[in-house]
Recover the amino acids of this structure.
């Protein structure tokens, strides 16, 4: 089994489809990550009367604010790019505050959605949390299509915080608490 080592745990990459790979995001990924963020915001931006330039400026500013927030409040988080056959197609951001695994963000470009890849990424994170005996926590908008996926994967809906609902998934009760296996840094 191939694993990726992170400060907060190990991800078992063998749980992903063979053509998918994770790698740490770098400064050179910022244009891709900004464009990916825009695709996530496009449905709500389509409802505004703004010009394309206004929509892009808003999306860029929101991306910068989110990125700043994540890096300030989760300095040890793992910011990863999801690749398909070497092409960036998404992102997976994870953190581990106070003994949890926090699924901060998961997003794929529109052409790569609805292939089961998001579900595979979530299951990989949950397998890691189960192996470590950790709760998994995330925040999601109820209108987000991933909300149903999280429910199917055992997340329990909690309190509404603004437009986001907090969801938690305890570790699976039958999960084996194994010692970490051999690790390969950086994929």
């Amino acid at each position: 089994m191939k694993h990726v080592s992170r400060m907060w745990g190990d991800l078992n990459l063998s749980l992903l489809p063979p053509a998918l790979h994770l790698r740490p995001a770098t400064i050179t990924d910022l244009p891709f990550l900004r464009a990916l963020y825009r695709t996530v915001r496009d449905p709500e931006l389509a409802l505004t009367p703004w010009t394309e330039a206004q929509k892009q400026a808003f999306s860029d500013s929101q991306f910068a604010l989110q990125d700043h927030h994540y890096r300030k409040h989760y300095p040890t988080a793992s910011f990863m790019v999801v690749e398909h056959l070497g092409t960036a197609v998404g992102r997976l951001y994870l953190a581990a505050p106070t003994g949890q695994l926090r699924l901060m963000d998961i997003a794929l470009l529109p052409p790569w959605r609805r292939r089961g890849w998001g579900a595979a990424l979530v299951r990989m994170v949950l397998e890691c949390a189960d192996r470590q005996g950790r709760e998994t926590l995330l925040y999601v908008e109820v209108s987000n299509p991933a909300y149903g996926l999280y429910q199917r994967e055992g997340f329990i809906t909690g309190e509404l915080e603004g437009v986001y609902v907090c969801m938690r998934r305890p570790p699976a009760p039958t999960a084996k608490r194994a010692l970490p296996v051999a690790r390969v840094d950086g994929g």
Summary: The two ends are 11 Å apart (CA to CA).
